[in-house]
């Protein structure tokens, strides 16, 4: 079968596109890095791809708010196009800044009538940028990207990663719908590794189809076992890093 094609959608300030492209390449996908202006000028290009990923970084310098300008471009220029991409069976992944972007579009956790976001990523509770490793627990449900994943370590690097919803009832509705699929968990001493104060320890969410997924941790930064800071002391100190399975799951849908 023909390997699935992946569009890595970038903007000025995106800086994780090469690592994300490499991760998809390792799993047999065929990634192409495409600037958002290219796609706006030639929207039919989206038909060449089966997977779309918005990688991490600081799009447009995170002016106004993290991911805001990138999201506004998508909403005004590509909103219908990407919704059609999703509806025809395409997968959409947003990592860190990409997650921030997705939450500000109609693609993830938006009100079905107004299109306004029902969840956001606020400044870290500490008021500081956080760059460290965290432990995560998954309840995959229908989320395509997390199939077979239950526990994993991944690095985070963000200043605005605190997941918040409009109110408690909104959070409860997302929880009941099985959309809160990835959460920060405790370390070996029982201490929480939640790096930002996210409501309910939420680290990643999916839409109702399970085909649109956003997360704050960086799976593309742990695709080889040697990338873990404790790799020489781990039992799995050879082969793949835990983050690679998210890309494998996406590619396998079309393989």
Question: Which consecutive residue ranges, at least 5 long each, have pLDDT under 50?
Answer: none
The Cα radius of gyration reads 17 Å
Question: Might you state the CATH topology name?
Answer: Rossmann fold
Helicity level: 10-25%
In percent terms, what proportion of residues is strand? 15-25%
The CATH class label is: Alpha Beta
Oligomer: single chain
Structural class, judged by helices and strands?
alpha/beta
- Round the mean pLDDT to the nearest integer and report it: 95
The outline comes out as globular
CATH superfamily: Class I glutamine amidotransferase (GATase) domain
Number of strands: 11
What is the count of DSSP helices, taking H or I runs of 4+ residues? 6
* Known CATH architecture: 3-Layer(aba) Sandwich
Number of domains: 1
């Amino acid at each position: 079968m023909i390997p699935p094609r992946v569009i890595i959608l970038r903007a000025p300030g995106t800086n994780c596109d090469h690592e994300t492209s490499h991760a998809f390449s390792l799993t047999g996908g065929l990634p192409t890095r495409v600037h958002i202006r290219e796609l706006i000028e030639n929207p039919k290009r989206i038909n060449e791809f089966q997977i779309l990923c918005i990688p991490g970084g600081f799009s447009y310098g995170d002016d106004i708010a993290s991911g805001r300008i990138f999201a506004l471009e998508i909403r005004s220029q590509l909103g219908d196009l990407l919704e059609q991409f999703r509806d025809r069976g395409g997968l959409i992944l947003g990592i860190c800044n990409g997650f921030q972007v997705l939450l500000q579009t109609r693609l993830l956790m938006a009100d079905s009538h107004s299109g306004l976001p029902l969840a956001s990523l606020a400044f870290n509770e500490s008021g500081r940028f956080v760059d460290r490793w965290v432990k995560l627990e998954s309840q995959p449900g229908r989320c395509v990207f997390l199939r077979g994943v239950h526990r994993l370590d991944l690095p985070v690097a963000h200043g605005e990663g605190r997941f918040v919803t409009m109110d408690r009832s909104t959070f409860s509705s997302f929880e009941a719908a099985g959309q809160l699929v990835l959460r920060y968990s405790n370390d070996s001493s029982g201490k929480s590794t939640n790096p930002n104060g996210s409501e309910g320890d939420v680290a990643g969410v999916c839409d109702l189809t399970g085909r649109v997924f956003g997360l704050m941790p960086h799976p593309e930064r742990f695709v080889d076992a040697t990338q873990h800071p404790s790799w020489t002391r781990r039992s799995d100190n050879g082969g793949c890093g835990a983050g690679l399975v998210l890309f494998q799951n996406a590619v396998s849908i079309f393989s």
